[in-house]
Amino acid sequence: METMQPSDSALISLYIAGKEEAFELLLERHKSRVFTTIMLIVRDEAVAEDLLQDTFIKAIHTMKGGRYNEEGKFSSWICRIAHNLAIDFFRREKRNPLLNLDTTSHAFNSLSLAEEGAEATITREETHARLRELIQDLPAAQKEVLIMRHYGEMSFQEIADATGVSINTALGRMRYALINLRKKMAAQPIFYDQNIYPRETDPVPIQRIAG
Amino acid sequence: MIKTFTHEKLIRYLYNELPANEQQEIEQALLHDPKLASTCADLLLAQRCLNDLRTTPRKEVTDSILRYSRTFLVP
Q1: Domains of chain A listed by start with CATH number
Q2: Chains A & B: contacts with CB separation below 8 Å
Q3: Which of A36, A50, A69, A100 is most buried per CB count within 10 Å?
């Protein structure tokens, strides 16, 4: 029997009331999409780890300081913080995100050679690296909506509000982002097999052991 | 009669943002409109590939956030 999962709002109330375990659950629930959102913007594992910590530290201060606004979803709120911090990082550093081309960064490699055949792992990693490059090549507005919706799980209305455009503009940008990605993928042999024979199941993420 | 759908509505369908009645309408249309079904399949394939990029931070990083939370006192 499936156990009932407490809502984010319930966990936040418990956390504010002093239950640290509630925050642990919140972090567990949201860490992956927040981290992926940051990684796709900064493309540097060490920076992404720092920004992930900054994001949650900001959330801790806001919640424990009694300033958390119950309106809206926690998931959208935390992703907006992460997104803003990642963008601010580049503004501050005046760095070009495309400079870091280390797309084989081990943060993205959740499967070890032992878990999957070596050849399959290499192919998968090459495919993922290429896909990350394709995302980086999208026009900035399309990339922003794609990251916020697909990884940040913000609704299109929330994205429209956060970026100051209409919902139809946000939807249009997402549509073009997916179409552009699909066209570019179709033009590259590395994506050929998986597009014709898509896998039936999602990969099982394996927790990496810190090295 | 096959109802026509805007591309924006299709995107909302792909991301489960349509109300139940509109979702059913679009699913009916997908059965009878090969062009719409083909567009939808293309978008779904792109969407599926994106799912593979999700990643998880190292345990040390999340442990450090938890430690911070436990020791943080409201000023």
Answers
A1: 19-100 (1.10.1740.10), 111-200 (1.10.10.10)
A2: 129
A3: A36
